[in-house]
## 1
Amino acid sequence: MSPHSTALIVVDMINTWVMQDGAALLRQASRMLPNLVRLTASARRAGVPIIYANDNFGRWRSNLPATIEQARQASRASARIVDALAPRVTDYVVLKPEHSAFFATPLELLLKALKVRRLVIVGISGDQCVLATAGDALLRDFTVIVPRDAIASATAARTRAILKHFRDVMDVATPSSRGVRWR
């Protein structure tokens, strides 16, 4: 594997949206989808590794094709997101059992193997899984960037609040997705 200084972590976007606040979260995620599609395309052009950190939905025998198909079948809106963002063969996938993409997953080892030191974290939910992943990344001395228009929480107000928390409390940069520089 060739070394990269930055990786894009896409959190929980392959989803059925059957959860507490799922319908509201799906609406918010659909609004930020164009920004996320543009950001993943930009990362691919720059040769930046893209790592999908996705819930295993409590299925310890789950596999990526089954997870993608389940999300695709959940609804038309879910299928639209999956079709726009499905991992490619060159991407990495980590199935996670809890909020943080680091908890009980090989993510830290993968990042070490890729020689990554800076993470751009996007996805849902900003005030839960993105927050937990960002916090764990900071504890591991990664530099963290959370593009303000590429995360979503169940409401716009909750997204604004967590972005303020990222900036003011965690000292995490929150540029627009267009402002992310890969090198």
Note: The chain is about 45% helix and 15% strand.
## 2
Amino acid sequence: MPIDIRSDTVTRPTAAMRRAMADAEVGDDVLDGDPTTKRLEARVAELLGKEAALFVPSGTMGNQIAVWLHTRPGTEILLDANSHIVHYEYGGAAALSGAQLRTVTSAGPVMDAASLASTIRPPSVSVPKPSLVCAENTHNSAGGMITPLAGMRAIRDVARSHALPVHLDGARLWNAAAASGTSLADFAACADTVMVSFTKGLGCPVGAAIVGSRAHMEEALLVRKRFGGGMRQSGIIAAAALYALEHHLARLPEDHARAQAFAKRVDGVAGARVVPPDTNIVMLDLPPGRDTAEVAAAARKEGVFLNTWTATRIRAVFHLDVADADVTRAADVVTRILEGKAR
């Protein structure tokens, strides 16, 4: 059986999750509301301490709805230079909302308050007005790194000092809360809107949610429709998310422990170095002369699927379909390949 650690999105619904989906009470969510989806939205809003939530097909749609809510054409969004919204949403902010991205580069791996403050430009007739600050927690490209609560509050305070709203791309906020001990609600209090994904860490086949004020979510419902995200009997997939919140949220520390175990086994092998994982993502930087495509292809031949993040960096993500024995096998395969002993 292959060990697929390219992403935590590759999981398949468990038998119990499939039963919950099959048994879900459903309605037409566009016409008059789906009862299971409504229960999910109420539960997510409660967990994150916000007035309301909206179920959406994907995290990217959730982020782009938030961008549309907070910005106006010709304004600019301030966000980390390596954030998901910058690199992996196909220019959505520009194409859908007419907003410009102004990237923030920090001394450390992720955006901090000081770097954000220094990037916000003084008002001028020659430059776009800022309209939104976006943060990402955990930070995917930084290896699942957590911005702690103090850092999130500092970012919020800088944004407030410039009268700017904050949107939090919290696709893996579940992992940040599980690893740090900070509640989801405390993290969410640092932002006006938050997106959380049910396919990241929680093992759902599809779906995300955006949370915020009731007024924002009423408008978000209309934007979701405009973006093509209106769903009919959405309770079938909402049931999976409700099941995951009940049964998969508490087990996230297992994924973090397996990421740490994998990192410990491969760090230093033949000159490779890992970014010490905060959560469930391991970034492995290869030594000079080694190419990720070659390493990943060799690993795939041995049944281990890795993500070629860059030409020199491999990503491995641990999730509920990965057992302790899989960690050992995957680490052994990567070790042999790096040492030139591939089968």
Note: The longest helix spans residues 252-266.
